[in-house]
Design goal:
By secondary structure, this protein is of the alpha/beta class. Helices cover about 35% and strands about 15% of the residues. Strands 3-4-6-5-7-8-9-10 form an eight-stranded mixed β-sheet, with helices on both faces. Strands 1-2 form a two-stranded antiparallel ribbon.
Length: about 300
């Protein structure tokens, strides 16, 4: 029997899950969305999830979590670099990226955390290392602190963890999602691109901006974009319920932040690191909220350093 990643539950041992193309395959260093594929599917409690894994199945597992309003695409460069020494799992949360987006879908942070736990069970992962960005940080923290999931170590990158959080833009749009859903497509695209670009300190390359916007402009994406912002309005209590538990975290933790982050200011990162015993803080100058795009080499290097004793 395999012990699950959380206490009190055992699972039958399965065959090794087949990974996607490994890090040595010939790809662009930072491919656009058309080359970032999630060929596997899982039917979760919140809808169909698309996922993939990279690297040698015998290596230590590392799971990557994206945030709002992004997808696993933001991790593509880091994932392919880390896959040279680790087995990397990537997935798009329900309501995001290539995963299912539907009306009346529960995409609260609590539900996303439940789906994350489901996936760890599906993948038969016991105490993986977890790297989480933005609201993915809240999902990972919730699975650990509220559901008892164990990690070998945890990296929180510009994470949603301390309230109050949410920009004036997301608050306004979330409160009036039904109105914004009816914007003319051209107006929606312009608003969306301006919003996404604000997550970068120097500004995003047009091809990257296109890739980040793509899930929100095609096949019902406009309505889905505003639904997920509305869903976040009810999530403050979820992160509030965890804050008093941060001082109980007893694994190695890296808190990594973009110094120029205007979505979740670096002061939140410093406060979060201070609340987690023995957490390491790394601040990347010249990077905004999307450190993966602004300082990819520096972020990858910081994560390699953090994971160095796992290889």
């Amino acid at each position: 029997m395999f012990k699950a990643a959380f206490s009190g539950r055992t699972l039958p041992k399965r065959g090794k899950i087949r990974c996607g193309r490994d890090a040595d395959s010939k790809r662009e260093r930072f491919p656009v969305a058309g080359n970032w594929q999630l060929p596997n599917t899982y039917s979760s409690g919140a809808g169909l999830v698309r996922w993939n894994c990279l690297g040698d199945p015998d290596m230590d597992p590392v799971v990557l979590l994206h945030g709002t309003p992004f997808s696993s695409f933001v991790w593509r460069g880091v994932a392919q670099s880390l896959a040279r020494r680790h087995r990397i799992y990537v997935w798009d949360m329900p309501g995001y990226g290539a995963s299912e987006k539907s009306e009346r879908q529960d995409i609260s942070l609590a539900m996303e955390s439940n789906v994350f736990v489901e996936l760890l069970t599906e993948w038969d992962l016991t105490e993986p290392t977890v790297l989480a960005h933005d609201s993915g940080g809240a999902v990972a923290l919730g699975a650990h602190l509220l559901q008892g999931v164990r990690y070998r170590r945890l990296a929180l990158v510009d994470a949603v963890a301390l309230g109050p959080w949410g920009s004036p833009f997301s608050q306004l749009v979330g409160e009036h999602a039904d109105v914004f859903e009816r914007l003319p497509p051209s107006a929606h695209r312009a608003l969306l691109r301006e919003y996404l670009n604000s997550a970068s300190s120097p500004g995003l390359h047009p091809a990257i901006l296109d890739a980040l916007a793509e899930p929100w402009v095609n096949d019902g994406g406009q309505s889905a974009f505003y639904r997920q912002l509305a869903a976040r309005l009810g999530d403050q209590d979820y992160t509030d319920s965890m804050q008093e538990k941060y001082d109980t975290i007893d694994m190695p933790v890296l808190v990594c932040w973009g110094e120029d982050d205007t979505w979740v200011p670096v002061e939140r990162g410093r406060e979060l690191a201070a609340q987690i015993p023995n957490a390491e803080l790394r601040v990347l100058s010249g990077a905004g909220h999307l450190v993966h795009e602004d300082k990819p080499s520096e972020l990858t290097g910081a994560l390699f350093d953090f994971l160095s004793d796992l290889t």
